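Backbone description:
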Amino acid sequence: MNKQMNKEELQQRFLSFFGEGSGEVHCYFAPGRVNVIGEHQDYNGGHVFPAALKVGIYGAIRLREDSKVRLHSDNMEKTVVVDVNEPFQYNIEHDWANYPLGVIQFLKDKGHKVPGMDIYYNGNLPAGAGLSSSACMLDLTGYMLLSELGLTPIDRTELAKMAMHVEYHFVGVKVGIMDMYAIAHGKEGHGVLLDCTHMERKLVPLNWHGHTLVIMNTNKQRGLVDSKFNERKGECDAAHEIIRKHKDISGLALATLDDLKSISDDVLMRRARHVITENLRVLDFMKALEAADLAGIAHCLNESHRSLQVDFEVTGKELDTIVDLARSQEGCIASRMTGAGFGGCAIALVKDEHIEAFMRAIPEEYEKQIGVTPSLYIAEIGDGVYSL
């Protein structure tokens, strides 16, 4: 992942692309996130434990005196120009710009007067890797616009809810709130334990006790709209409805293993079993983390991947290969896929003295088996969205 960018460099890049103007150029940053454990839990009312990263997307914005909106990303080939007074709907031609346009439309729908603007994005977060580039852009754009329109102080939970609403209703991906919430509420050196039923959070220090968390990008691109994410969401909803016939619960994660007896369909039963056991694993993981129980931490992470592979079926050849390779390396005590799956990233917990050898071996072995070179990064945990 690329280097950090300072405010002056970001402003200069903005001016080089958009030129001089009458307004001030203000700069912001939103991180990506890595989910340590708790996969496919947020839309099922379970517990999740993500953390904000020190890589993400930078944004520079300047309000205009007319109604023109110009959106440019250094990381994408398309620059989009629209009129703010026109109603926005999801448009495949707008590609990545649907995310900021959805945020603008959300604020317009809420009755806010939104002026024209120029926004410049530059990210060091790989898109489609499962590190929440879409949620990152949504939180970033929302934070920028709320700040520029004077709608402060910003309620970070409401910011996350706005971002989720845009991705769910405007973009059309039936996501939960975890990604947006972690990016809004992240704190350096901490994970965010979130109860997605009661929306209660706890910041928990991340101490790996002589180990390092490594992010391994398979470099298999994944897009949630094009993947089977919405299909898995539908299967979970169907399983929830079956259980609700005899037990009034607000989310599938609140069911018990005994409730699985009411589900005759094998696929739906396995989807529900993952959701129920993963929620319990998060709670077990937190106990192990607090007790510095490395064996317990490793067991939870490894079992999470097995459940996502066998019961939820969202791993695939690339993720399974890189996880197996990681586990075979000296000093690696655990590895699992992270994010929605269907490609993207996995994580590994590696003893500090073996990090260099691990970072050399995985790309070589993975390329031999898959034919693609993966990208490996040390997971540096940072703060939630902020102004530069």
